[in-house]
């Protein structure tokens, strides 16, 4: 993926098993927990490109959230803040080679940011 591409979509759910059954049956998504990400089943669309996760719903996460790949979360957050965004979640580590954060755009939309790679080889 390149800078600016949507790389991941999280869907908030209250019942992981029920949600996995619903989305796999409805759209043919492959849904499975990955090692190191237990309790966060990942989904992949039949095109083998689109994907994301089923994440626990909570007061701060009630609607699906898209993640955009960026070269630098720090630089993107600074630029977003200059343009009127706020930070909902500071940069956090996913793995030793990847990070995420969430900004709120001037219209109140939550947009996830993703930097790095989750591939074990670091590529």
Walk me through what this model shows.
- With 123 residues, the chain is of the alpha+beta class.
- The protein has two domains: 9-57, 2,3-Dihydroxybiphenyl 1,2-Dioxygenase, domain 1, CATH 3.10.180; 70-118, 2,3-Dihydroxybiphenyl 1,2-Dioxygenase, domain 1, CATH 3.10.180.
- Helix content is 18%, strand content 40%.
- The protein is built from two helices and eight strands; from the N terminus they run βαββββαβββ.
- The protein has helices at residues 16-27, 73-82, and strands at 6-13, 30-32, 42-44, 51-56, 65-69, 86-95, 98-104, 110-116.
- It has an eight-stranded mixed beta sheet, with helices on one face.
- Strand 6 (86-95) and strand 7 (98-104) form a beta hairpin.
- The protein is globular.
- The model has no long low-confidence stretch (mean pLDDT 92).
- This is VOC domain-containing protein.
- It holds the Pfam family Glyoxalase_6.
- Residues 5-116 form the VOC domain.
How big a fraction of the residues is strand? Answer: 35-45%
Unreliable sequence segments: none
Listing every helix as H and every strand as E from the N terminus to the C terminus, the arrangement reads EHEEEEHEEE
**Helix share bin:** 10-25%
Going by CATH, what is the homologous superfamily of the largest domain? Answer: 2,3-Dihydroxybiphenyl 1,2-Dioxygenase, domain 1
Shape summary: globular
- pLDDT averaged over residues: 92
Q: What strand order characterises the main sheet?
A: 2-3-4-1-5-8-7-6
Structural class: alpha+beta
Number of domains in the coordinates? 2
Number of strands: 8
N-end to C-end Cα span: 12 Å
CATH architecture of the largest domain: Roll
Report the sheet with the most strands, covering strand number, pairing sense and barrel closure. Answer: 8 strands, mixed
The level 1 CATH classification of the largest domain is Alpha Beta
CATH-assigned fold name of the largest domain: 2,3-Dihydroxybiphenyl 1,2-Dioxygenase, domain 1
Radius of gyration equals: 15 Å
* Count of DSSP H/I helices: 2
């Amino acid at each position: 993926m390149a800078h600016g591409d949507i790389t991941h979509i999280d869907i908030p759910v209250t019942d992981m098993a029920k949600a996995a059954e619903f989305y796999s049956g409805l759209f043919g998504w492959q849904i499975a927990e990955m090692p190191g990400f237990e309790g966060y089943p990942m989904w992949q669309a039949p095109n083998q490109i689109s994907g994301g996760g089923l994440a626990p719903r909570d007061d701060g996460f009630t609607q699906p959230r898209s993640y955009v790949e960026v070269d630098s979360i720090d630089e993107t957050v600074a630029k977003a803040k200059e343009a009127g965004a706020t930070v909902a979640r500071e940069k956090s580590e996913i793995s030793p080679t990847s990070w995420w954060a969430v900004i709120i755009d001037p219209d109140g939309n939550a947009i996830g940011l993703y930097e790095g790679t989750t591939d074990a080889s670091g590529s």
